[in-house]
Q: What sequence folds into this?
């Protein structure tokens, strides 16, 4: 029986995970999901391929991954089967069969991240794992002006981790950068075709400083030009960050790929293609998300101060 490929949309509370990507001896989102899939496949590992990775403490409302399987389970039953075995801090929203060449990461057209800031003089113990709490009152009009500078196609070297080992271009396109105000809460919304390591958290930090009157749009322009953000932009805390949504090209739904259940000699090639694609991207970006990088980044900023 040929393998079928499924696209899965999940949300998770990142508080008690050491990030999304599987790592030895620590609890991760990928690890918990693959553990359930292995149980369903009688101990055989089934690798999942995510749309991206999130750091320790970062949450997701609309993370996407795909996997391939020979199990003959009706599409509508996968959601129930997975949720019945996954821990309470991971929830499957949708499972959908997709064409063989679909890839959760490389087929994505754009991603949306949201960063939540709570302006409060007294800490809210119930939101400590889900918001960046600050005791300032920020000027939203100044933040709105700063947001405009980030929109468009730019080299975001200045707004990525100084420890990033990304090889190749750091040019990305942000289609939307905005702020929404709801009482004491501010939400930064960023939509783009891709994001560098720590890029969203660094931009969130810059926007907060803009709201404090510490950074002007002209200074942000200069950061782009010099590829250096100076003493500003220490990554905002991870708990305020959410991977909100991943959008895929419509042609993946409309293109006439054959979806048949016949035996196929190419079924193993699908897994090999996915693994090679992930490995190639990992080597080109050397993209590592570990808690230690936060400490290194903070130390570097302290030294520059």
A:
């Amino acid at each position: 029986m040929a393998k079928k490929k499924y696209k899965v949309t999940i949300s998770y509370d990142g508080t008690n995970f050491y990030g999304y990507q599987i790592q030895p001896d620590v609890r991760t989102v990928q690890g918990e999901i693959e553990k359930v899939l292995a149980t369903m496949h009688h101990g055989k590992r089934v690798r999942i391929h995510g749309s991206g990775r999130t750091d320790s403490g970062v949450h997701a409302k609309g993370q996407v991954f795909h996997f391939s399987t020979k199990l003959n389970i009706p599409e509508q039953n996968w959601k129930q089967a997975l949720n019945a075995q996954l821990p309470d801090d991971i929830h499957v929203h949708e499972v959908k069969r997709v064409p063989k060449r679909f890839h959760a990461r490389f087929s994505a057209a754009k991603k949306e991240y949201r960063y939540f800031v709570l302006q409060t003089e007294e800490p809210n113990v119930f939101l400590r794992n889900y918001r960046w709490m600050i005791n300032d009152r920020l000027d939203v009009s100044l933040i709105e002006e700063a947001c405009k500078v980030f929109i468009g196609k730019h080299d975001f070297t200045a707004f990525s981790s100084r420890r990033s080992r990304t090889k190749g271009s750091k040019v990305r396109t942000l289609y939307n950068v905005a702020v929404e105000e709801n009482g004491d809460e501010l939400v930064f919304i960023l939509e783009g075709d891709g994001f560098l390591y720590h890029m969203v958290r660094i931009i969130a930090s810059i926007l907060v400083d803009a709201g404090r009157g510490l950074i002007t749009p002209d200074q942000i322009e200069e950061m782009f030009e010099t590829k250096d953000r100076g003493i500003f932009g220490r990554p905002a805390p991870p708990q305020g960050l959410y991977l909100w949504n991943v959008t895929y090209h419509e042609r993946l739904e409309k293109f006439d790929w054959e979806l048949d259940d016949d035996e196929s000699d190419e079924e193993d090639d699908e897994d090999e293609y996915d693994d090679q694609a992930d490995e190639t991207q990992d080597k080109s970006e050397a993209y590592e998300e570990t808690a230690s990088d936060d400490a290194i980044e903070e130390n570097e900023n302290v030294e520059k101060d």
Notes: The CA atoms of residues 39 and 281 lie 29 Å apart. The first strand starts at residue 4 and ends at 12. The helical segments are 29-40, 75-85, 140-150, 199-211, 217-226, 251-254, 267-285, 291-304.
